[in-house]
Specification:
It comes from Lactobacillus gigeriorum DSM 23908 = CRBIP 24.85. InterPro entries: DegV, DegV_C, DegV_domain_contain. This is DegV family protein. There is one protein chain. The protein is built from 10 helices and 13 strands. It has 277 residues and is α/β, with parallel strands linked by helices. It folds into 2 domains: 112 residues, Dihydroxyacetone kinase, domain 1 (Rossmann fold); 124 residues, Hypothetical Protein Tm841, Chain: A,domain 3. The strands form 3 sheets. Strands 10-9-8-13-11-12 form a 6-stranded mixed beta sheet, sandwiched between helices. Strands 2-1-6-7 form a 4-stranded parallel beta sheet, with helices on both faces. Strands 4-3-5 form a 3-stranded antiparallel beta sheet, covered by helices on one side. The longest helix has 15 residues. It is globular.
Amino acid sequence: MNEIRLIVDSSSNETEQTNRNLKVVPLKINLAGKDFVDDNKIDLPSFLEELSQTTEAGKTACPSLQDWLDALEGAEKAIIVTMTSGLSGTYASAMQARDIYCEQNPTSKVIVVDSRSAGPELSIILERIEELLQEELRFVDLEERIAQIRTKTHLLFILQSLHNLAVSGRVSPAIVKLASLLHINVIGQASKEGTLEQLAKARGSKKAVKELVKQMKLEGYHGGRVIIDHCENKVDSERIRDLLIEEFPSAQILIRKTRGLCSFYAEQGGIMVGFES
C-alpha cells in the first residue's frame, strides 16, 4: 500500500520530505491586511511580531479547491487528514475537492479524515496511518481503522498569551491584562467535538507544565509516542519531556516548532502536545 498518497494541511506542522509520500497543503492567514501563506517560506519571526502588535482580529482561510486538487494530481489512492472542522472549513473544502477529483478520475479512491484536532495530534494520527499502510489491508477497510485510531489520540495545550483571543472578542481585555500581570497560563484540550476547551489555569509556566502532564495521565497516557509543538518555547517543551521521561522512561518524544497556523492559535510561548492513550 505504499502507493497511497498522504495529504495533510499545514495545521499539522508537518513538512514535506523526499523519503515520505506526503503532501502538505498550506492554509492562509491575514493580519491587519497582510497575507501570510503557511508554507515553508513563511517568515515566522515577522509573523509573530505582526500577531503580537495587531489590534484587529486576524482571519484564517482554508486551502482552496485547487490547492487540494494540485496535491491529489496523479494519485490513484489518497488519504487526506485535515484540521478540525470545528474551527475551520478545511475539512469541507477537502471533501469538495475529493468529489471533484473522483468525478474527473473515476478509478481513483480518496479518504478524507476530520482529525477533530490540529498540530501534533494530527501528526500522531498520520504516523499511525503510515503504520496501517504496512499491513495487508484493503483500501475500503482503512477508513474504519483510522476512525478507531482517532478514539485514542489526544491534544492538550498551554497558552501563555491571550492577546489574539482578546482582539477577536473571545476574551475581555481586562482578563488578558490580569492574566498577564499574574503570569496565568491556560491549559486546555481539543474536545471530542473538535473545539478547544479550557481545563485549568496555572500561575507560572512550571506549574502549567506540571498541570499539563497531570492532565495527560488523566486522559490515559501511560508511555508511548508524544509530539510536542511549541511557539518559541523550547524550555517548557523540554520540561514536559523531562517530566514524562522521568515517569515513563521508554516514552518516545519529539519536539518541534509550530508553523504559521498553529502559531496563530497558540501565540508566543504556546505549547501543543499530541499523544495516545
